[in-house]
Each structure stands twice: as structure tokens, then as C-alpha cells.
Amino acid sequence: MASEHKVGDLAMVTLDCADAKVSSEFWSAVLGWQITASGDGYAMLTGTGAALGFGAIPDYVPPAWPNPNGSKQFHFDLAVENIDSASARCVELGATVPAEQPGETWRVLLDPSGHPFCLTKAENWG
């Protein structure tokens, strides 16, 4: 029923960042998606579903984590088999792990541009 009122399909989500090349290489490795466009402060990944774009912004300021207002601007939740090994791999690729964590079934990391994203056990998404 909802599709009768649909305006369009989500084609891409684009994130502001400090360096489009660094962000696209990080997320390409994390998601296993291909970098299909890159240059002039912009990059795009394609994989399953909508594309993921990155646009370098002069004087980029990353979102705060934790943010006292609760705002993250956006975040990805990634379903993984093992949170510890997935977290270690993301850190090898350039992520950081902030001190404040929401609990034991989720792990918050920050991508190279400071965007928070979460790892959770794949079984939680059943």
C-alpha cells in the first residue's frame, strides 16, 4: 500500500567528510564495496542497495561523540559475526574507538572523518 504513494527510490546517501579519498577507501574496505567514482573532492561506492557518496567539505567539523544533545547526524549499524574482530579490523583500516560505549551488544567506532557507526552481533538482526 505504501508504494502507491512513493515518490522515488533511494539512490545514494552522501556524507560530508574531511577527505573523500580517505573516507571512500575506509568504507570500501569495511563494506567490501567498489569505489566507482573518485576525484575533485568526491567519491562514490557501489555495492548492495543505494550507493554511498563522500563529499569533502572545506573546514569540515565531525559530529561530536558522545554528543550531549544526542545528535549523531547519521550513523550506520553494521551486523557482524564477532564484534571484537570486526572492531579490530576497522581500527586497522583507520577507525577509532571512543571511550564511551552504549553497552555490551553494540560497539561504537568513529570513521576517519569522525562519523560514529555501530557494530552489533549479526544474530541481533535475526
From TrEMBL:
Pfam families: Glyoxalase_6. Gene3D superfamilies: 2,3-Dihydroxybiphenyl 1,2-Dioxygenase, domain 1 (3.10.180.10). SUPFAM superfamilies: Glyoxalase/Bleomycin resistance protein/Dihydroxybiphenyl dioxygenase. Residues 9-122 form the VOC domain. InterPro entries: Glyas_Bleomycin-R_OHBP_Dase, Glyoxalase_6, VOC_core. It comes from the Bacteria. This is VOC family protein.
